[in-house]
């Protein structure tokens, strides 16, 4: 039997963005559960925790002073103001995950996606998730039972602005049925992992195959 060939590859920085409530956290959790080769970038935020959110698991919950110091010390790969709070991606965890051979999943807004793309360019894959309708978006925000009417109203008000950034993404999906959308997200990740430019050593591998053919250079 032929020996299996393993080439290392560059990690994928996989971004999911959407208007609040469209379902990116749900899909992220499904991804993390299903695929052990991708891990979540845990953001820092000044927003207070929702019921059930655990510090260090869902977010690092920090006060504004701490956040500002982290930003000033260059600890963030990107950060932005979202819904009146600060959110940022700590650089150290991302570096550690990539070093360990993992892909990294980011649940961040369009501002973060833009900044990350400026930092890491072709390593970044940007996926935008749309709700099927705005009525359904509001229904989902309400069904979550985590935010006040005021917070939900503010998020709905901001949704059109979020959606207007859809064309800054590589893929745009409609999260109508969550299982279907999850399958599409997985298919994107699977294909992106196989991209030629991510395969380290592929040039040498192909060259050696060609060289193994006697007089190959004369036949090209
Ligand atoms: N396809 C779907 N059909 C019905 N409900 C859904 C679907 N996808 C997600 N939901 C539900 O909608 C609610 C909002 O989803 P979720 O928290 O994942 O949104 P989000 O985009 O991460 O929001 P935020 O940006 O505020 O974190 C949750 O209660 C979730 O279970
Ligand atoms: N630019 C960044 N945006 C982030 C980050 N972490 C989360 N987010 C986005 O904020 C909103 C609100 O999130 P919520 O948990 O309060 O509902 C949502 O769009 C997230 O994607 C981050 O590190 N940077």
From TrEMBL:
Molecular function GO terms recorded: ATP binding; GMP kinase activity
Any single Gene Ontology cellular-component annotation: cytosol
CDD domains listed in its UniProt record: GMPK (cd00071)
Catalytic reaction equation(s): GMP + ATP = GDP + ADP
InterPro entries: GK/Ca_channel_bsu (IPR008145), Guanylate_kin-like_dom (IPR008144), Guanylate_kinase (IPR017665), Guanylate_kinase_CS (IPR020590), P-loop_NTPase (IPR027417)
Database matches in Gene3D superfamilies: Guanylate Kinase phosphate binding domain, P-loop containing nucleotide triphosphate hydrolases
Major location (coarse): cytoplasm
Alphabetic keyword roster: ATP-binding, Cytoplasm, Kinase, Nucleotide-binding, Transferase
Enzyme class: transferase
Localization per Swiss-Prot or TrEMBL: Cytoplasm
SUPFAM superfamilies membership: P-loop containing nucleoside triphosphate hydrolases
Domain Guanylate kinase-like residue range list: 11-190
Nucleotide-binding listed as a keyword: yes
Enzyme Commission no: 2.7.4.8
HAMAP family on file: Guanylate_kinase
Primary role: Essential for recycling GMP and indirectly, cGMP.
Family under the similarity heading: Belongs to the guanylate kinase family.
The protein, known as: Guanylate kinase
Top-level taxonomy: Bacteria, Pseudomonadati, Pseudomonadota, Alphaproteobacteria, Sphingomonadales
Gene: gmk
